[in-house]
Design goal:
There is one protein chain. By secondary structure, the chain is α/β, with parallel strands linked by helices. 33% of the residues lie in helices and 22% in strands. β10 and β11 form a beta hairpin.
Length: 448
């Protein structure tokens, strides 16, 4: 393709799905423009992985920098896409982009709508994860963590938050409240190893025995769950705090109690049993409730997409075309308006924007690449543009009232952080505020 004869695609979001999609499109001759809400690229690979997994993070950072170095990939950080952002999806169309890929993750948070959710000491796991991973503005917020913390959820995010509470906060007690049983937990053994040294084995054994009859009634073997935890404990690292970790199965929160001062004083739980419904094991409340005394409640129950982006949302997800024109491996990556029962021309979704997953980078990578394949099939039905969109894009960027970060600015940021790490004798250093990052790049106070 000549410089004057190109296809142009905008990607909203520079997490793993967006970045790997950009790579695949660029390698096929497409000009890609990444718009990222954050200053730094990486998304959950940067701000969702536990900080001590530095080798994994550095490996991913190197891959992402390699993708951004491609001449066909253009990057604009500190730019928000959406109805309340710097550019709407319609703005991107008017700039001339032939296709738009939405890969902004699931920026919203799920809540259960329980009484007491607004009390002091009630948080969403995402806020805590972003806080300890130094994502502005969460990095600057204060979270009051008590001595006995309940985490509602049974996935890898629950384990990560427990890791933080055990290693950093060193609270007295952490209890994971799991709606279903041991067989339905979503965390894996390797993640559990991070906190297994603090797991109360006797309490787990007693809990397993308590729920074993319900498991056996469904044909489940409690021994497989026992082995999972036993193997994790066998490979656990050293115990770094006296925190006691335990799990309560077959329990659903019903309300959060006020301690009389506007803060958490306990959580009311309803006992569950398990039933088979349409081939899936689901929790069924038994009507019996009881109160567990806790002073902090953290919900790790999943995420929801950003409803202000400008795409139709149902059941926490963006609508996808049920009959895609360009399916990849039987999956739809095409945005859809289910109210009007029509596809949204030229708009695609990938990663958690398409479907919430396990959070593994490999899963996001595959989803991003497959979305790029669908876009390439779509672009094949269009004529390439006669001229570059860059002048028009740059003009729109310069009209924004705040600094915008480019690839060249990112190089300055990485260099400044590496120098700070060497000066402090640290393996890794990341600025915790946007102001610090902008200053390191020479952008503080700069407006376009």
């Amino acid at each position: 393709m000549s410089l004057e004869n190109r296809y142009w695609v905008a990607i909203a979001g520079a997490g793993p799905a967006g970045l790997y999609a950009a790579q695949h499109l660029a390698e096929n001759g497409v000009q890609v423009v990444l718009f990222n809400r954050d200053i730094r690229p990486g998304g959950l690979a940067e701000y969702g992985i536990y900080p001590d997994k530095l080798r994994l993070k550095n490996g991913l950072r190197a891959q992402f920098q390699q993708i951004l170095s491609l001449p066909e990939v253009h990057y604009y950080g500190n730019v928000r896409i959406g109805r309340e952002g710097d550019f709407t999806l319609d703005d991107l169309r008017q700039l001339g982009f032939q296709a738009i890929l939405v890969a902004v993750g699931a920026q919203g948070t799920k809540w259960l709508g329980l009484p007491g959710e607004t009390l002091e000491g009630v948080y969403h796991a995402k806020d805590i994860v972003y806080h300890y991973n130094k994502l502005p503005p969460y990095s600057q917020r204060t979270y009051k963590i008590g001595n006995k913390v309940a985490i509602v959820g049974g996935g890898n995010v629950m384990v990560d938050v427990a890791h933080y509470l055990i290693d950093v906060c060193r609270v007295d007690e952490v209890v994971a409240i799991v709606r279903r049983g041991p067989k339905e937990v979503k965390f894996d053994r390797r993640e559990l190893e991070m906190v297994a040294a603090n797991l109360d084995w006797n309490a787990f054994e007693a809990e397993l025995e308590r729920v074993a009859p319900v498991m056996r009634a469904l044909g489940q073997d409690p021994e497989t769950s026992r082995e999972l935890v036993r193997n994790a404990m066998a490979k656990a690292g050293p115990k770094r705090s006296p925190t006691r970790l335990w799990i309560r199965f077959l329990a659903s929160p019903r309300r959060i109690l006020d301690n009389g001062q506007g803060a958490v004083g306990g959580i009311e739980l309803e006992d569950n049993t398990l039933v088979l419904q349409n081939g899936e094991v689901v929790a069924k409340g038994l009507g019996h409730t009881w109160v567990m005394p806790v002073d902090t409640v953290i919900f790790a129950i999943g995420d929801r997409v950003d409803e202000t982006l400008g795409l139709p949302v149902h059941r926490y997800e963006y609508d996808k075309n049920p009959n895609p024109r360009f399916p990849i491996e039987g999956e739809s990556f095409e945005a859809y308006d289910s109210e009007r029962d029509e596809p949204i021309e030229g708009v695609f979704v990938a990663g958690w924007s398409r479907k919430a997953s396990s959070g593994l980078v490999g899963t996001a990578r595959k989803d991003g690449v497959n979305a790029a394949r669908a876009i390439l099939n779509y672009l094949a039905t269009l004529s390439p543009l006669p001229e570059s969109l860059l002048p028009r894009i740059e003009q729109a960027i310069h009209m924004l009232p705040h600094p915008v970060v480019t690839k060249e600015h990112l190089e300055r940021l990485y260099q400044a952080e590496a120098e700070r790490a060497r000066a402090l004798g640290l393996d890794d250093y990341r600025f915790a505020t946007n102001e610090e990052m902008l200053e390191a790049m020479g952008l503080l106070g700069v407006a376009h």
